[in-house]
Structure formats: C-alpha cells, structure tokens
Batch of 2 targets.
Target 1
Amino acid sequence: MVHSNCHTHTVFCDGKNTPEEMLLAAIDKGFSCLGFSFHGPMTPDAVWTIRPEKLPAYTAEIRRLQNVYGDRIEILHGIELDRDCCGVDPADYDYMIAAVHQLTGGELHYDVDDTAATLRTCRDTLYGGSWLALAADYYDRVAEFTCRVRPTIVAHLDLIEKFNEDNALFDSGDPAYQALACDCADRILAACPDVLFEVNTGAMYRCGKKQPYPAPFLLRHLYERGAKVIVTADAHTTDALDFAFDKALAAIRAAGFDTVYELRKVDGKAKAVSVKL
Ligand SMILES: [Zn+2]
Ligand SMILES: [Zn+2]
C-alpha cells in the first residue's frame, strides 16, 4: 500500500486547508511522507496560483512544520509549475511537478480543468471547433514543457479528459487522439526516462471521475514503454489525501505494472523509492 502523497495543495494557492491541517491529517492516516506542492505564480487572474509575495511565508511555514513535526513524518517542499518557471527557481524546492493547465492563444487563455463549458469555448475559439487540434496542442505543450524543465513528476498527463467521462466531450477511443497522447508520453520518456508519471485521483474526489488520470489506454502504453508511475491525490482538502488510492493501484495493476514509486525523504533529499504491488 502507498502511505504518502506528494501532490498537496493548501490555502497558499487553491487548497482549502492550511499546511499544518494537511500535515496533521497525513500523520493521522499513518503516512510516512507528505510532499507539499503549490501552483507556481502565473498571471494575476489565475486565482488558483500562489501570489509571488506569499512565497517567503509559504517556505517559512513548511520549515516551521519540519521543525515541529519532522520526527513524526517526512516532509517535502515541492512545487507544481506550469508552462514556465514564472520567476521561481526550482532548485529552491525538493522536487518539481510539471503540468499544463492552460491553453493560450495571443492574449486569450483557458484553464482546461475549469469546466466543460470552458474547454468547449477554448476548442471553438483557439482550435476552430476541433477537439483533435486542441488535443494536439495540449499534448505538444505537455511534452515540450516537461522535456525542457525535466521535473521529478509529470502531473495528470491527460488533464483534458477531466470532463470527458463516457466520452461526453470527445471520443478518447479515437486512434488519432490516442496517438497524440502516446506520442507525448514517448517524447517525455526519450528525454526523461526516470520521470515519474502521476496516477492522479484528484478529479475522482473533486468531480466524481470514475478513474484516475491517465486513462487506461495511456497507462497501458506507459507500462509497455517501461515508464515509472506514482500515485497522487492532488489533494486540496484533508479528506482527499489518500482518496481512491485503492482504485488507482487497481488501475496500475490492470495496466500490467508490478511496481509503483513513492517520493520519500532519504538523507534529506526527495527520492523515488519503489514499492512492489
Ligand atoms: Zn495540476
Ligand atoms: Zn495540483
């Protein structure tokens, strides 16, 4: 079983609980390790990201928690970055999660995980109504950003599937769509063979998605390519910290894996540690 989570948001960005509340909940659950991540600064209207002026207080709070609770649980100080590093130096953090949450064109930008309506508007405005064109651009951005910044973890690889339960928006069984997603994974693996791909239960908690990211075909592809996977909750509340981890592990097993990875603190540093299923 997995007793850790390295994708944890707090009130410093769009989470609902303080870092201390999240940490106490993790200790209550018997976790070995909790990694804090936050959405790195972006444009001022991206209200789900941390404000740059809050960065010192955030770091100070994680250090305080380390001093108070560091003998009871491993604590990691991470960051989830989007598109570029936004003035943040990743070297200041124990690990980095790379993600693409926005698609942009000129002055326009759309959060792909906002609502189905936002994603449709994005498709119509930026991609002439074509889901495939949207998917091609999304996966290209994920691969480009990940290969450029070489993170520890790739977040929710197929985030554009968030509202696509039962193909409500587009046909994710379309071979042309699947080729885009698989090609993205291959580009990432060619540049970063040791990167950890998230199996992320965040949307299962937040909007009732039946399965984690990535979709079964993509998880299977990752297995066939020898990729490493890590289970994360993308938690924004205390009760989400290990939400549906059993289902995520079942999906991982079903794809063929016999090993997952956990991010742990070893000799003061973040380290991917394998766990046999
Ligand atoms: Zn994210
Ligand atoms: Zn996140």
Target 2
Amino acid sequence: METSTNEFSLPLQGKLAIVTGGSRGIGAGLAWELARRGANVCIVYVSSNSKPAVTDLQTKISQLPHKPTTWACQANLSSPTGAEEVITQLKSQIHDPENLKIDILVNNAGIEAVNNMKDVTIEEYETVFNLNVRGSMLMTQAVLLYLPSKGRIINLSSVAARYGFKGVSLYVASKAALEGFTRAWASELGENGTTVNAVAPGPVPSDLLDKIPKSLVHMQKSTTPIEQRLGTTEEVANIVTWLAGPDSSWVTGQVISASGGWTMY
Ligand SMILES: NC(=O)c1ccc[n+]([C@@H]2O[C@H](COP(=O)([O-])OP(=O)(O)OC[C@H]3O[C@@H](n4cnc5c(N)ncnc54)[C@H](OP(=O)(O)O)[C@@H]3O)[C@@H](O)[C@H]2O)c1
C-alpha cells in the first residue's frame, strides 16, 4: 500500500476551496482549517468594514509552513448577481483563469431575523431567504461549471432546521430549505463522485449568536449532553474539513449535527 505523509497531514493540498462568509465567526475558522489542511482558499465577504479582518486572516494563512494561497472576493450574495461576481473576481486574481477548478464550496454565509411569525415582514423574509437559500443556490450554480469530479459542496445548516424555535421562524425555515437542497443536489451531482452534505451546528459564539434570544441559547446549552457548553468554531471546522476531503467519499446527502449531542438523529 502506497502512503505519503502529505496525504495525511495535508489531505486538501492543491485543492481550491471557496468559503462564503469567511471574514469572521465560523466561516473564518473554516477558511483557516481548510488552509491548514492544504487547500488554497477564496474568502468571500460583503462588508467593507470586514476587509481588515480578511487581510489579517490571509496574512495568517500565508504564514503556514506550506504557504497556501488565498484570494478575497467582496460580493453581496443576497443579490442575484453576487455569486457570478465572486467567480469574476476570483478569475481576475488567479494565474490561469482559463483552467479555473473549484474543488470545494462551503456555503457558510448566513443571516437570521428575530421576529414572531405574526409580525414577520416581506423584507425580513427576503433578507433571510435571499442569502441563506437563494444565495447558496446561486453560488452552487456558479461553481458547477468549474467543479471537477469528486467535488465537495458543504452547506452550513443549523440545529434550528429541525427544531421549532420560537421567534426565529424565517431562520428555521431557511435552514430547512437548505437541507432540502442538500439532499436533492446530492442526488443530482453524485454521478462523478461529487458529494453534497450539510453541517448543522448548535450554538457557537459569534456575532450571529449574539443576536439570538439569550433564553434559546441558555436552553440549548443547559441540555447539551457533552459538557453542557457551547460549541467551538474549531469543532465545526473539523467536521467541515473532513467532509471536504477524500475520507468522506461515501457520505452524501447527509446533515451532520455538530451540537454535542443536543440533537440526535
Ligand atoms: N454561530 C452559531 O451559533 C451558528 C449555529 C448554527 C448555524 N450557524 C450558521 O453558520 C454560518 C456562519 O454563522 P456565524 O455565526 O459565523 O455568522 P456571522 O458571525 O454573523 O458571520 C456571517 C458571515 O456571513 C457574511 N455575510 C453576511 N451577509 C452576506 C452577504 N449578503 N453576502 C456575502 N456574505 C455575507 C459576513 O460577511 P461580512 O463580515 O463581510 O459582513 C460574515 O462573514 C451561518 O450560515 C449560520 O446560520 C451558526
């Protein structure tokens, strides 16, 4: 049996990964871990005030011993053209745009809205669904042209997709839709070895979590089997990077709960 050190230490070497929402929170941790395992990473963000954080992350990644390449693309994935803008910006930064290959897409950018169902507005609906659902769909469509065989698509869902949390129905429903996409895309794209999976975290400290009602977070924390604590970005990243690599080749259409056992299904 042939083995090489890099196969184990850098299983994603030579792969190009796009991480949406890679400027902060879970996405920044995902970009770091994918790069740590060898991938070259395109970090997608939207807010101009996140640019310094993206530059810092790129510097940190470039200092890894194997010197991964990074690119940054600023685009609004809630808009109908945002995903195509990412591809255009990425092509303008790489050496050989004619032969662009995107091996891994992580649809991580997401947003929540807190409001009771009876008061939810069309604007809030559009804010949440245009990013969490349509944005993930358009980003995946945009990447398909460049996705080689054995490609990897990973969607960031939430334990909320299958739990009726009060006051966040748009978020809950958007993540349920994303899990539906995950299964259907897995069926459509599996022919050439491409896998599509979702990771559903429980609460992880981030700007997004700060906006979720404290009572919901406390309820989850106090009933989490593992150590009654919140998850960490690293714990989520370890699962996402495993799904992004060769060891997960027989896993597709799945939702992996990253919640310390808060959900068990
Ligand atoms: N944190 C949790 O407890 C938790 C639990 C379960 C699931 N999740 C899911 O994990 C993912 C990441 O969550 P997080 O907590 O890390 O969120 P976060 O800290 O609020 O970060 C959101 C990221 O999405 C980007 N983004 C927002 N709107 C965008 C748009 N219109 N176009 C492009 N990028 C956009 C932001 O970019 P800028 O910095 O440029 O604004 C930022 O990088 C989300 O899908 C979330 O639903 C989180």
